[in-house]
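Re: that chain you flagged

S.,

Sorry for the slow reply, it's been a week of failed gels. I finally had a moment to sit down with the sequence you sent. For the record, here it is as I used it:
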Amino acid sequence: MEFDLVVIGAGSGGVAASRRAAAHGARVAIVEAGRVGGTCVLRGCVPKKLLMYAAEFDDTFAQARGYGWTIAGVPDFDMAVWQAAKSAETARLEGIYRRLLEGSGVTLFEGAARLDGPQRVRVGDETLAAPHIVLATGSSPIRDTVPGLEDCATSNELLDLDALPPHAAVIGSGYIAVEFASALARLGVQVLMYYRAELPLRGFDPMLRAAAAAELQAAGVELHPGVLPRRVRPLLDGFALELGDEHVLETDWVLNATGRRPNSTGLGLETVGLAPREDGAVAVDAALRTGAAGVYAIGDLTQMKNLTPVAIAQGRALADMLFGSAPREVDLSLVASAVFMQPPIASIGPAEDELVAAGRKARVFETEFRPMKQAFLGAVAPAGQRTRMKLLVDAASDRVLAAHMIGADAPEIVQSLAVALSAGATKAHFDRTLAVHPTAAEEFVLMREPVRMLP
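Prediction finished late last night. Pasting the structure tokens below so you have them in one place:
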């Protein structure tokens, strides 16, 4: 079957690439071995945030009494009820993705796909031919970091639970580990976190990392930095974590949150002369071209920046390059990201320690405060829940290089600031912007004096 473009993987990036190419008039096929919609929609961002919303009510119920509400009885969370609602929502979203593909004129093939030589893709008994092939297969949880980890749940299985365990151990300290530890603790699970580093969230600004650790502890999460289990053993009614020095922890349930690996195995890369990197990623250049003519890769498969909006932007840019009249590249030098713990974290631009390592001269502006909503509660306010903000400003040009925040609505606030930073806003622009009062966001335009200079 002849097409202009074949896309392998119907996640966010693959769907974006195929629909944009079809809009340019290309004949497009997309192949998916699982459900249409990909990790973000079905097993990641969307259901994860729905669980975070559920967990937020724990704080809400506690705070409501301080605001004059009378709540009869003890609130109780039913995971099975949430699970049914989540499943219905992801099914609805999958239906939307399928209709979008159909409405765009993209032909969907369901099954496992692999390259079958230049310009060929094999799907079951069918061969699809196209001069352009896009690999958009994403990534999957790593299950071999610690012996025995293959028997433990990942975020995929967590989001399919009908009941929560009384106790849980979380192994890892990245986005997934922090977000789910925060949510599970608020949903009544006693959580312990084990990880190699001194602080969670490697790669984020030190202020945010320290604040995340403090907020997790305030929520009741027991942190064990610098401790990674040597082995995990299944028991009849749980797991045993071998922690060294003959210390063994028994727990009801274990979440493997040690990272994700690109889905390059079984793609048939060797049939076009390609081999994945040691980390499983498929190498590409700035135009998303692999080393094989006519073969491209986007999203998590490339390990460039593993964020859904990046995959979508890459897919659309690639389709524009191949079939449109305005070739362009995706600029990944300034990409905002968020961690949906409670309170949430958001960040755009380099971390302070990155600037120090680069010898970059910059001014550091910081503020920390208890939000009005918490301050009103006084002594009955839940522990933690402080807001922290930071701006990093280039000493020579006055350009704002980075904005970091932990606190209520941080992702929404930093998303708006991302526009300003992308446009090259200076600290002077921030200073002459009038505040919206009373808000937390106004603090970003009210920080007048730097707290220190770098380096």
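What I noticed first: The CA atoms of residues 299 and 311 lie 4 Å apart.

Talk soon,
D.
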